[in-house]
# Entry
Amino acid sequence: MEYYWLIKIDDIRVGDHSIDACGSDGCRAAVDTGTSLLTAPSKDMIKLDEILELDEDHCRDFENLPDLIFVIDG
# Structure
């Protein structure tokens, strides 16, 4: 029995750049509105880290980072 909502994600983007995490069939995500945490398989988090090229200075200036976009149902 599942105790969380699952949705289909078509794509995950950083700004206009797809991180190619979901493939052509999309991927599933659990939605938990009671938390601000975000997690993903390690390989996808590594892609995200490489795209953002985060370091300590970027974290201080997070308001200028590109949007993290979840494409749901187109």
Observations:
- Helices lie at 42-52, 56-60.
- Residues 31 and 37 are 10 Å apart (CA to CA).
- The chain is about 20% helix and 25% strand.
